[in-house]
Amino acid sequence: MSKFSFFFLLFLVVVVVFLLLSSVDARKKVKRDCPAGRTGPDCSTVLSEKLTFGVSKNGSIPRAQWAYYHVTVPANSTILSFGLNQTMVSSDLGADCDLYVNFATYPTKTQYVGKDISLDPTASVIIERPDNGLWYAGVYGFQKCAYSIISLLGAINTCSGRGNYQNGTCTCNLPYYGINCENAVKPLRPGVTMSGTLRSSEWNYFSVSTTTIRTVFIVVNETDRGDTDLYVAFQRFPTLSNSDFRNYNTEQNYQLSFPPRIGMYIVGIYAYPTNQNRTYGYHLTLSFSDACEVDCSAHGTCNDRGCICDSNFIGDYCQTMVPNLRLDTPVAGSVASNQWNYYKVSINTVNNLVIRVNQTSAHGDCDLYVRAGADPDKYTYDYSNSRVDSTFSLSIPNTGSNIWHLGVYGFTPCRYILVASIETTCPNNCSGHGTCTNARCQCDVDYSGPDCSANSNVLQSGVERSGSVLPWAWSYYKVNATGSLLNVQLLDLGGQPSLLRLYLQIQRSPSLNSYILSDASLRSTDSRHILLRRYTTDPADYVIGVYSLRGNSQNMTASHFKLLAWNSPF
Questions:
Q1: What is the DSSP letter of 88?
Q2: Which of 280, 181, 275 is nearest to 230 (CA)?
Q3: Cβ neighbour number for residue 187 with a 10 Å cutoff
Q4: Spatial contact of 388 and 303, defined as CB atoms under 8 Å apart
Q5: What is d(CA 386, CA 408) in angstroms, rounded to the nearest whole number?
Q6: Nearest to 239 by CA among 248, 247, 229, 231
Q7: From CA 439, how far away is CA 397, in angstroms rounded?
Q8: Strand 485-492 relative to strand 457-459: parallel, antiparallel, unpaired?
Q9: Fewer CB within 10 A of the end CB, N or C, for the chain?
Q10: pLDDT of the residue at 30
């Protein structure tokens, strides 16, 4: 071999060794730069965390991502169980975690031994006589969610002595929760401040035990400028759509008061999803008052044992009138913040049934809700009026044989006089913009609303319009349909979850119980959509109604949106 060949061969060996070392170092750098919970040259491999039986772990997962956990099951085990408790709840427009379990390999949405993909805030998978070896639990983010997960080995029928076991599941006594009732909600005690933090769309829970009917006061002080809301439910966990008392204004410091029943309340503080990257801090303080709540709704007298109700009224604070209201007979009442008074009226008439409220207190804000067949709440009703006028009313057309339940709600404490009557004339004489027929307004072109006072905006097919609507109010738009399909799309610029509702009616203004199509469901999205199949190409006028559930009726902050309607062909 020549000297030149020898040195050339040596040079090639050095280059190969250098390239190999560089490749190894590059792979190490890729691995070292992977985010927590992932590994591999391209960071595509998800690691699993080890669970210790009986010890819960907290976690969070983005939408459409997985988090994995594993346990080692010894031979001859009788029961293996996994429990998941969501700290953000899907039914509350927050998140949705799904739980999958598999043996020996990671579970997927199609390969698993057991799964729980319900919308309940707790999920569990129980494996009887599991094989010994490695078992994996996968938490899948159907939506972004936060959670705690636990695994138990052996029978769970003890429920930690805190619940009842039936059909493989523990029903926990309050304030406990979890697959084996192993977790407890923190109690609120008078004069003791509880502090915490919340991420966007997340809940923290506390319990309040009441042994008397003394008024409960809960004060919230936000340490960061954000938007937290307070919800309270008796003997259950509150949600955005199911609570007994709530305060969801936008103030940094606020309070909630309510007259309790004797028992346990669960208090939930919720971070409204205004900024997905924010963390909010808060202080929570509980106190009691010995006074009766708002003079027993002006329907009774107060003594050291609570409210003694007048005849015809019942309830812890005399809030419910038992007999039906008599027409044209005024009834006085009073409500505290977040408190309700309830009445009933039944009359079958072709004319409008009108409910009028006159607020007699110098300061205050009463709202009126009406529902057929059952007491209304702020999310379930047929008619409502929640403006801040001192005197206001609402009309019920075509009453039929229904029993109409009236709810007077205290946005802030107020006193009022309520009266029900039959109206034989149109409201406000249709504001000069319509024709009165059978005590109902037929509005002129470009006007809408029960009294034709709202000027309707005209939408052109395919042309986007910006708009706004005040809290608990309507914004109307007219569109002329010329094709077989009419498509209406709304984008809530306030973000998700949207608290705007979209309604469509032909030739007249829609209402909450009079429309041909609507998109009014509570779900985690910032858009609304209606598609009308007309089966004709004859032109016809339609009215689009945008109704707002969002906001603080005290400062009347409007919600902004974009609206688009177009005719086929698209």
A1: S
A2: 280
A3: 15
A4: no
A5: 10
A6: 231
A7: 9
A8: unpaired
A9: N
A10: 42
CA atoms within 13 A on the CB side of 46: 18
Say if CB 220 and CB 230 are below 8 A apart: yes
Q: Which two tokens stand for residue 403?
A: 């029993």
Please state the φ and ψ torsions of residue 432, each to the nearest 5 degrees: 75, 10
Phi and psi at 5, nearest 5°, equal: -65, -40
In the block, which residue shows the tokens 């936008």? 250
Spans of the chain below 50 pLDDT: 26-32, 89-93, 551-555
Burial 485-523 (b: 16+ CB within 10 A, else e): ebbbbbbbebeebbbbbbbbbeebbbbbeebebbbeebe
CA 122 to chain centre: 17
pLDDT in tens, 390-416: 888 888 877 888 899 999 998 888 999
State the Cα–Cα distance between residues 182 and 205, nearest whole angstrom: 15
Query: For the whole model, what pTM was predicted?
Result: 0.46
> What does the H/E/C string look like for 2-66?
CHHHHHHHHHHHHHHHHHHHHHHHHHHHHHHCCCCCEECCCCCEECEEECCCCCCEEEEECCCCE
Cα gap 398→119, rounded to integer Å: 38
Cα dihedral across residues 425, 430, 434, 440: positive or negative: negative
Structure tokens belonging to residue 340: 């309700």
User: What single-letter amino acid sits at 305?
Assistant: R
pLDDT of residue 24: 52
**How many Å is the Cα radius of gyration of the chain?**
30
The pair of three-digit structure tokens given for residue 142, joined into one six-digit string: 């159907």
In the prediction, which pLDDT does 418 show?
Answer: 95
Residue pair 545/503 in contact by the 8 Å Cβ criterion: yes
Provide the 10 A C-beta neighbour count for residue 559.
Answer: 22
Are β-strands 203-210 and 186-187 bridged in parallel, bridged antiparallel, or unpaired?
Answer: parallel
Q: Name every residue whose Cβ is closer than 8 Å to that of residue 65 and which is 6 or more positions away in sequence.
A: 140, 141
Closest CA to 396 of 349, 462, 362, 436: 349
Query: CA neighbours within 13 Å on the CB side: how many for 57?
Result: 18
Domains of the chain: 1-46 (no CATH), 47-184 (2.60.120.380), 186-289 (2.60.120.380), 314-423 (2.60.120.380), 456-567 (2.60.120.380)
* Dihedral in degrees, nearest 10, Cα atoms 38, 39, 42, 46: -40
Assigned token pair, 407: 């709810």
How far is Cα 535 from Cα 373, in angstroms, rounded to an integer? 35
Whole-number pLDDT of residue 248: 76
